[in-house]
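2024-03-11 09:14:02 DEBUG pipeline.ingest accepted 1 chain
2024-03-11 09:14:02 DEBUG pipeline.ingest length=434
2024-03-11 09:14:03 DEBUG pipeline.predict start
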Amino acid sequence: MKEYFNFIEQIKKNYTNIIPKEDYGMIVFLLFDKFGTNVFSENELKKIISDYHNYSEKERELHSVIKTTIQFLSINFIRKSKEGYILTPYSQHFSKEIWKKLHRDFSPSEVRKILLKLKTELDQQLQEDNFNEWFDFFERYRTDLDNQIESLNKKIDRYIHDFRNIIFDSKKQNTELLKSIREGLDKIKSQVIELTSAFTDIYDIEDLLNQVDIDIDTYTTITNRKKAKEYFSDIRDYLTTINNRIDLIQPRIQEFFSNINRADFDRNTKKFIRYLINNTTVEKINSKKELIFPHDKALLKEVYKEDFNFTIVDNQLKKGKTQSKTEHTVINEKEVEKKYQNAKKIREQRAKTTAYVNNIKKDLNNDKSIEYSTYFYQIMEDTQNINIAIKVAYLLLNEFTKSQQHTVEISDKAISNDKYKSTVLWEMKISKTN
C-alpha cells in the first residue's frame, strides 16, 4: 500500500531548512552570483558574510554571526569539500530559478516563435491523427507562454507602483521619472499591439482544433481540445485586460504632468509680475506720465526662465484626460478572407449537424426506434464529410445514453456500405422506452 505523504505537515517541519530567512537567503544568492557552481574557500565565505552585514561592532560579535550563518547554511545550502566549500545542488537550483524569474523579459518575437511551433506541430499531428500527442507538446510550451505574459504584466505593475509612489510623495514628484514611466507604458502598449498581431497564429490553431476528429469514445481528446481552446481564448482576454489597464493609467499620468507644469507656470508668472512691480518706474514724457518697464532682458529672462521638462499642449487635454490615439492597423485582406471562409465553413457544418440531429430525433419520435447506420451513410453521401456523420453520432449518444426515456443498443454486428467500403461501423439501435 502506498504511503500517504502529508505535504503541509512536512513543510511545517522543514520550512526554515528549505526556505531560508532573508539574511541567510541573501548570503546564498551572493555566493551563487560570485561563484556559481565553483568551489570557494572558507575565507571567501567569511568575507561574503562580513561584507553583507557590514559590521562596525566588535570582532567578537562578527565572529559569532559568521559561525551561526555557516552552521545554518551547512544544513542544506553549502557543503564542505576537499578544496573548500560549494553550493549544494538544491541551493544552485533554488538560486537559478530565482535568477530566471527576475531576469526574464517579455519578447513578442519569442511568443510568435512558440505559437508557430505549436501551429506547425498541430497541423502535422492532425494529419497523423495524433491530437493527444500534440496536446502533450502544447503542455510543455504552455509554461513558456505563461511566463511571457506574466513578465508583461509585472512590468505594468512596476510602472503603476512607481506612479503611485510619486503621487503620494511630494519629494518624488519629478517630471523625468514621470516621463520614464509614460515612455515605459507606451513601449508596453506597442509590445501588446505587436503581440496581438502575432496572435493571428492563434486563430489558425483554433481552426485546426475545430478539425479534430471526435470519435464516440474519445473522452480524453474532447477534454484536451476544450482545455487548449479555453487557454488561447483566456490569453486573448488577458491581453485585452492589459490594454485596458494601460488606457486607464495613461490619462492620469498626463493629467499629473499637467498639474506639475501648471504649478511651475503659475510660480514663474508670479515671479515675473513681482519683478515688473519692483522694477517698473513712472516717468513724465511730453507732459504725460508713462510706465517705463525694465530694459534688462538678461535679468528678465532669468526671472521668467522656462524650466519645463516637456511642453504642455492644451488641445490634447479634455477634462483632465488625453484624447485617445487612433491605432492605424494594416489589414491583410487575404488573411481576413481566409479566416472568414474558415468561420463560414465551421458555421455551415454546425448548422448541418444540428439539422441532421433534429431530423433523426423527429423520426425516432414517430417510429419509436431507429438504426443509426442508415443515417450515417446517408449523411456521408449528402455531405461527403465523415466528420459530420461522426459528430451527429456523438451528439445522439451523448443525449440518449443519459435519457431515462430511451435505450441505446450497440451490437458487434458490422454494418457496411458498398459506396464506402473502407468505413465500417457497429450496428447502433436507439429506441423509446414508452
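2024-03-11 09:14:41 DEBUG pipeline.report Residues 132 and 221 are 6 Å apart (CA to CA).
2024-03-11 09:14:41 DEBUG pipeline.predict end
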